Amino acid sequence: MTPQNTRRSEIFYILGLGSNLPIPERNIENAIILLQKKGFKILKYSSFYLSEPAGYRDQPIFVNLTLLLQTDLKPLKLLKKIKKIEKEMGRVKTFKNGPRKIDIDILLGEEVFFKDKKLKIPHKNFLKRPFEFLPSLEVSPDFIHPIQKKTLKEIGERISFKIKAVKSIKPEITLSS
Questions:
Q1: With 60 as the cut, is the pLDDT of residue 26 above it?
Q2: What is the largest CA-CA distance in the chain?
């Protein structure tokens, strides 16, 4: 018997999580736990990375982390679920680049190039933001950037950033199997 459709339905995504209010590390850890409770399969997560706020500067530093996720959701459905989780965690939209309890972004998708008014994959500033790129490199150096057609490791060998991100500790979160 030959399978009719051999295309895999699961997609690997790299998500970026960020927070600067009130206890950022705990907010990010809680977001990972909530993602798992909602049925998301998280394969790996990075260390925390600290960075100065961009845009609006009069706010606490940001703590960021990325994770490698496997799901059968297409980009817009994934975005909808992520936004629901942000809201459930108490995210309140204030102003662009303002302080936030939690922010979850879809940074990359395996073989995914997606663009509409709500979402762009790869994330439009991914290669300019060390607090997104460096933890993504830590989580999945062999992930292929869908536009560059190179691995994150290959891109990392030739990229430099105007802003800085400092690697911190790696949280201890139990991942569901």
A1: yes
A2: 63
Q: Which of 164, 168, 142 is nearest to 155 (CA)?
A: 142
User: Could you give the CA distance from residue 122 to residue 15 in angstroms, rounded to a whole number?
Assistant: 11
| pTM of the model as a whole | 0.92
Amino acid, res. 87: K
DSSP string, 113-133: -EESSS-EES-TTGGG-HHHH
pLDDT band at 143 (very low <50, low <70, confident <90, very high): very high
Does the pLDDT of residue 7 top 70, yes or no? no
DSSP string, 24-46: HHHHHHHHHHHHHHTT-EEEEE-
**Contact (Cβ atoms closer than 8 angstroms) between residue 119 and residue 146:** no
Q: How far apart are the first and last CA of the chain?
A: 31
Mean pLDDT across the stretch 33-49?
A: 97
d(CA 33, CA 85): 11
